Fold this protein.
Amino acid sequence: MAKLTSQILRSMAHIKLENVVKRFGDVIAVKDFNLDIEDKEFVVFLGPSGCGKTTMLRLIAGLESPEEGNILIDGQRVNELPPADRDIAFVFQFYALYPHLSVYDNIAFPLKAVKVAKPEIDARVKRVATILQIADMLHRKPSVLSGGEMQRVALGRAMVRQPKVYLLDEPMANLDAKMRMDTRAEIKRLQHEIGATTIFVTHDQVEAMSLADRIAVIHQGVLQQIGTPHEVYNRPESLFVAGFMGMPTMNLLDAELGTREGGSGLRLSHTDVWLTLSPHQQAGISATAQNNGLVFGIRPEHINATREPVGRKIAAEVHLVEPLGAVNILDLRLGTHPETQEPILIRVRTHPTFPIAVGGTIWLDFDEAQMHLFDRKTEYAIWERNLT
């Protein structure tokens, strides 16, 4: 397998995006986008629908043109270069296979279009089909293939060109959950073996976390954060990233500094919950941030729940129990908003055998090393945290 893979390698690419801007009328789809993608790196563009991730992919491919900024591939500015001259393979969400052509001819199509010699076409198609484990399907038509098999054919058509860069736009969006998992593992294996520079677009954070060397989180055309899956999940740099990453997402609650008997600390707004801060944490909260408003964050898995109060624990009423099989997610009531009368809830992840019912009381401990704080106005993280 490794030997076969090595035979289809060619020069790979470093991609640099400099202050890229793309507008559609009055709408800014991509805003001042800066990113370096290293040779052979697997980068995932992650964000909700309409955030600009596919637009950015199309800009790199040459299917759209930027109004401002530069797109460089291996140091060459390609803003005006046609898509065919960028040496990029684009795999779309919809497979776009030719129904009247066999699998063999679908894969071979881009080589025939540029008049590659027949013996070379045959050798490349069979090598790629062997890697993708579809060599026994080359005679079939797309109509008799499963969704996963058609996806492999679409990947094969991209691979056979031996491009510098692979761009994949939500290629698994139309697959069921089991097939998505299998195809995800296949894409990761292929990218590792081929070592190609790859940009993968998705709104699915599980895909992003499992596939990426680095994740670029995008919101409203703005690059929110770029980092490894571990960095993006454990050290979100903005409220958007904190609220977008994780299933369930991070608890985000209004908070303010205050003083009570025994010293100062952080109070969760409209609750009786006070959190003790270290001198370092307190020093990191500027007067400006206090005036802007504070948002406290902690992930459900970083809260420890017990049925009995041990030490200084936080009491909470069980509002809802969501059994998910491997875990339970508890919605816990910490207080009530005085204006809306809506409950102030925090989510906790527990073992499925944890015995509790709606209306019961449990006690909570927060992992102090996993607490986050954000400036409500700027939406940026306040505390810098070291990852282990």
Q: What stands out?
A: DSSP finds eleven helices and 20 strands in the chain.
